[in-house]
Amino acid sequence: MTAATTPLTRRRATGRVARRRLVVALRTLAAVVVAIVVAFPLYWMAVVALSTRSDLLSGSLRLIPSSLTLDNFARVFERFPVWTWFGNSVAIAVVVALITVTLNTLAGYAFAHLRFRGSTLLFFVALGTLTLPVQVIMVALFQLTTSLGLYGSYWAVILPTSASAVGLLLSRQFMLSIPRDLIEAARLDGAGHLRVFRSIVIPLSRPLLAVLFFLTLLASWNDFAWPLIALKENRLFTLPIGLLYLQSENGPDYNTTMAFALLDVAPMVVLFLVFQRYFVQGFARSGIR
Amino acid sequence: MTAVAAAPSRRPERRRRHRGDAAAYGFIAPNLGLLALFVVVPLVGTLVLSLQRTNGFGGGVFVGLENYARLFADPLFWRASANTALSTVLVTGLSLGLGLLTALLLNAALPARAVLRSILILPMAVSSVASALIGKLVFDENAGVLNALLQAVGLPAVSWQSGGAPAFASVVLVTLWLRLGFNMLIYLAALQGVGRDLIEAATLDGAGARQRIRYVVVPMLGPATFFLLVIDVVYSFQVFDVVFVLTGGGPQNATDVLVTYAYQNGFVTRDQGYAAAIGVVLLVVAVVFAVVQWNTSRTRDLTE
Q1: ipTM of the predicted structure?
Q2: CATH match for B66-303 among 3.50.30.20, 3.10.310.40, 1.10.3720.10, 2.60.40.10
């Protein structure tokens, strides 16, 4: 097929190669344009965070900053309890992720491998909560957290946020792929369900645990609507709530707002880039089915 | 094999099932207990609250369906409903379309493909509050970089903040920015499932590029599209953060959606019974999609 013997076929072959090259070049160009458009807002956030106020207001369009400064960060740290808010975000996100992953995998195992009365109905009810926006229940949930005495502490955010079925669905789907024979064999050897869960299911579910932990951490770190309602005291704020507070205090001072936004965005972007190949596969698996 | 073994052991089987029940309930209790306490209980509370007239955070007075009657006569409620429907249609349609286009673009051997893909999915990691604030910066009517760029290429500046339709467009664009990566990822995975050999077979049968897409690729993408359709609709009808931070529902309620209008009533004007009634309307919509999603996941299980 590749052995082009006559000049005619050879010319046709080179023509085809040239056309294919052109197609690849055009595709690459289009993809690069899309990538630039998507990346630009993040680039611009960083530029504004690192440049002086006068640069932004000079009126002339300057896409590449003439000089860089860390003054905006200094001002943010000076005026706002950034480290407290950062610590709150870390603590809340980690605790939410730990609770959620533990509860979701436990329940996921039961729905995947145990037969019990009411399992279909209960699974349906749990799934139903997935499509529910928090705004449906926010007033009643606020009253509930107040009457439970949670309001005014981190738990007002942690407990309602941990009440989630997203990971339950993912866990069940993943654990269905663990061979039932393996579990039956361990059961026949006298292992209890908790033992089976700990020494067979969990070790085989490492990829799931990593994906689930990261996605829950990310969602909790970026969560806004419920923390906005549940955290009224400045000292309890997470980064997104602090960001909004800072913005309302600062008015149109975009430089400090973007400096703080960068502190909010950077950790998750870094983690995202490091872990992307794991959950890209996870997403792919959940999407094809 | 199992039929032979199962026949004589039916009675112990049943007894074991009962013992299994207790263990299973133990496994699901923490998760479902938390869901019951923090979702189901407030849900019932919302239904009760929606039948009450409230003042501040004290007790309410039972007023029957009065809140719902008020809703139907409230032009702002209808405005928010229309906005919600429109933004759901726009965000879902555009995420699907652009997600597929970018996936097709990246589904070929391109230089630096991995880097391009990483860039396109990066907004998935960005908080919606930060995204909305970046949006404020970019769309600023006076100092914003977007208007400066438009004017640099000879186009008129757009009133992204004071104009109703442009403000609505800015909300849709920021939401789309947040959603594109996820849609592209799912489509990319589905395209890789289509497989080279199927496309090559079509090529050998004389199908042109357009025909290959129309008759081979598109039908194979059905399941992924349906999955994304459900997820995108559910996501976009509850977009709160972007609207709340970027436009605050303005100008003149042009970007108000049901979730922001409910928040406004529940926590700003403190008309909680009324906010709960809006919540119930949202609930009805959510239930419809829960049913659709349930059907999707069930067919997914069956094909497994």
Answers
A1: 0.89
A2: 1.10.3720.10
